[in-house]
Design brief:
mainly alpha; Transferase(Phosphotransferase), domain 1; two-stranded antiparallel ribbon; two-stranded parallel ribbon; 7 helices; Prot_kinase_dom; ATP binding; Protein kinase domain-containing protein; protein kinase activity; Kinase-like_dom_sf
Length: about 190
């Protein structure tokens, strides 16, 4: 199987040894964009790590990040996953369909843990993608504890700040409300 990656027309080409940059026009989907890109236009390889972490948490939980709101505590998907991991209840995040069909739930909890490391608020705290691969492939590696999500913990703060951001900046973004996955052989 050959994986294919699409940039949806938003990709930027890095030059030579460049590993980060700035943009004046923020384009992307809220919930997947790294905070430094969404609010400052700064992008780097760690921006992609953040997006990867969100996708991992969505796959494991079966919930969309940009529409998730926990009923009890107004947590975002990131905040809810972090709270459950901290309480030793990460199994509760796993989608029922995945839980019923998975033979080794400890591997799924490891994915949650790595996903949370990828969505650290500070980009310097996020692992590189090669570190992510290493952590996922080597179950004997002890994973560092992720920091509290901070800004991304509570949906009320996120909604308020997104509203003020979109009112003050000329930005373009899309909001997907449905995902369809079809697995076909090549």
């Amino acid at each position: 199987m050959v994986p294919k990656i699409s940039d949806f027309g938003m990709a930027r080409t890095f030059g030579g040894d460049q590993i980060e940059g700035n943009t004046n026009r923020v384009v992307g989907t809220f919930g997947y964009m790294a905070p430094e890109y969404a609010f400052s236009g700064q992008f780097s390889t760690k921006s992609d790590v953040f997006s990867f972490g969100i996708i991992v948490l969505e796959i494991v939980s079966g919930k969309k990040s940009n529409s998730f709101k926990h009923q009890k505590n107004n947590h975002t998907l990131i905040g809810h996953a972090w709270s459950l991991l901290k309480e030793g209840r990460a199994f509760d995040l796993i989608d029922v369909l995945l839980r019923d069909s998975c033979e080794n739930l400890e591997e799924v909890v490891r994915c949650i843990h790595v996903g949370l490391l990828c969505v650290q608020q500070n980009l310097m705290d996020r692992p590189s993608m090669s570190s992510v691969v290493f952590m996922l492939e080597n179950e004997n590696v002890i994973l560092p504890q992720p920091n509290p999500p901070g800004y991304f913990m509570d949906t009320n703060l996120q909604a308020r700040d997104e509203l003020s951001f979109t009112n003050t900046t000329d930005s373009a973004y899309s909001q997907n409300t449905m995902t369809i996955t079809t697995i076909i052989g090549r």
